[in-house]
Amino acid sequence: MVRKPMFISFEGIDGSGKSTQSKVLAEDLRARGHDVVLTREPGGSPGAEDIRAMLVSGDPTRWSPETEILLFTAARRDHLEQVILPALNSGKTVITDRFADSTRVYQGVARADLRLVVDSLHDLMIGRDPDLTFVIDMDPATALKRGLGRGSGEDRFEEFGLQFQIDLRQGFLDLANQNSARCKVIDGNRDADKIAGDIAAHLRSENP
User: Fold this and answer.
1) What is the rounded distance in angstroms from the CA atom of residue 203 to the CA atom of residue 13?
2) Distance between CA 82 and CA 50 in Å, rounded?
């Protein structure tokens, strides 16, 4: 399904199933003989994982929005340098569970006055986006219940409540609409196998 190394990201609100679908796609591509690196954000490299531990746990108001942006950008820069670029340069396909779009939505769209800061830092310190992004769209109430039900201890953002998840969902849909050449919205309110089939079909259409 992939003729050349691709950088693919999965985005969506917490509990939308994007982590599951990123793993399914990675396994499918590996079974077809592709060399795939599956990673995630925040995290994905040792330094970025250290920052992740600070970001996804603790009191919801632990960090100011401005501090969050700086921490996410620092983690992403390390992830890019240590994992993503080396893999792509060696001919591997990279699939990441979240990338810059999550920061644009969580710290930019949901807190709209900071969107220009998010974009400026991205242009300055990251400088690239995925080749293809799958946005898994799901009912916020269902996703929130699923996310909190995991009991992972990494539910800081879920603790902001349902309205925050509703705002995030709209933010992802708006972003996908603004970047329609790169972003493909996938209906996540279905059986996981049907979602995976839809993703595979989109990927084949990108690599005829």
Assistant:
1) 22
2) 14
The position carrying tokens 């920061």 is: 103
Residue 122 tokens, joined:
């991205």
CA distance to 29, 150, 151, per residue, from 143 (Å): 27, 11, 14
- Total length of the chain: 208
CB atoms within 10 A of CB 120: 11
DSSP state of 4: S
Question: 158 pLDDT exceeds 80?
Answer: no
Q: Given this model, what pLDDT does residue 150 score?
A: 58
Q: How many CA atoms lie within 13 A of 58 on its CB side?
A: 9
Task: Give Cα 145 to chain centroid, integer Å.
Answer: 19
Residue 109 has pLDDT above 90, yes or no: no
Report the distance separating Cα 76 and Cα 68, nearest Å: 12
Domain ranges of the chain: 7-206
Q: Which of 133, 168, 165, 174 is nearest to 146 (CA)?
A: 165
Spatial contact of 193 and 186, defined as CB atoms under 8 Å apart: no
Distance between CA 70 and CA 74 in Å, rounded?
6
Instruction: Assess if CATH 3.40.50.300 describes domain 7-206.
Output: yes
User: Can you say how many angstroms the Cα of residue 190 is from the centroid of all Cα atoms in its chain?
Assistant: 20
Alpha helices (H) along 94-191: 100-103, 115-125, 140-149, 162-178
